[in-house]
Specification:
Largest sheet of chain A: 5 strands, parallel
Radius of gyration of chain A: 17 Å
Shape of chain A: globular
Helix content of chain A: 55-70%
Oligomer: homodimer
Strand order of the largest sheet of chain A: 2-3-1-4-5
Order of helices and strands of chain A: EHEHHHHEHEHHEHH
Number of helices of chain A: 10
Structural class of chain A: alpha/beta
Chain lengths: 196, 196
Amino acid sequence: MKNNIITISREYGSGGRCIGEEVAKRLGIAYYDKVILEEVAKETGFDKEFVEKKAEYSPFKSAFAYAFVGRDTNGVSVDDYLFTVQRKIILECAEKGPCVIVGRCADDILSDRDDCLNIFIHGNLDAKIKRIMARHDVTEKEAAKMMREIDKKRSINYKYHTEKVWGQANNYDMSLNSSRLGEEKCIELIMQLYNS
Amino acid sequence: MKNNIITISREYGSGGRCIGEEVAKRLGIAYYDKVILEEVAKETGFDKEFVEKKAEYSPFKSAFAYAFVGRDTNGVSVDDYLFTVQRKIILECAEKGPCVIVGRCADDILSDRDDCLNIFIHGNLDAKIKRIMARHDVTEKEAAKMMREIDKKRSINYKYHTEKVWGQANNYDMSLNSSRLGEEKCIELIMQLYNS
């Protein structure tokens, strides 16, 4: 198979983003993560922080509450509008050439392409909590809470936009436990598949 | 990490069993699949076919119905009894030395060991159906039905005995899409991780 694009989905605290960044660096290809947010903010006129909150983690209201709030006069919710713009930008990024895209349902958005390698990075509870504690200078309890909340939001967001279950192995070409295998091994395996 | 045991969980039609068998052959280590059934049959006195049906696919009744049927005078259901014997045999197999064990919740049964590499093999719908059609000489419709039913039973069985969701990436160290990567690549990746 010929691969051009790598999408990385990841559990919070698994190091998936760092793995994706390092893979892009070593392969000498583009890396898209926060830059997508900036593009969405530019195109929609919304604040970057607002976009960040909305674009990967919405809708985090219940489906019922969601039906009644945040819609513009055309009946399109702000969440849906932002997702549509984000989707267009991800498709444009992929068109530009080989790249790594982290998060944002990119695996599903690019599912019509057959040159896309979809990776999921997950990890053991203890290792993820330790990583979050170190990165954000928080207590174990706070780290565990952050992890639960962010993964829950990612899961709801993915379900809402793709109708698939986030973290289910058969959405991805390869899923790796970064705590068990180590980040370096994960990087090597992804590069190996990309080049095969 | 030092690995001694490889457990292979797999979607029906993904070729996971053949991949496991080939990995064992190339690594020169034991391979356990049907032999576990034979041992369970021998130890319990039940017929092999009955054990096969029960040991990987039970309970396939609803939890409610399950509460009222198939219990012996000690209150232990036949399903639970068979699973207990199967569990003991899997633990004994792992004790004997390096091996590959396919299916039967082995990843969960051996979760106390840190020398166990847990793999999940899945595949694309079309490829799995084609494989089942060729192997069992059935129509596309029949193959799709077999696939749905067997995976559903595996999923219920796994949930019942492990309280985890079958096929969810974070139960395994590595999950691979055999249709996308090809069987040979899957074999190579598993061997590479085992030896690393």
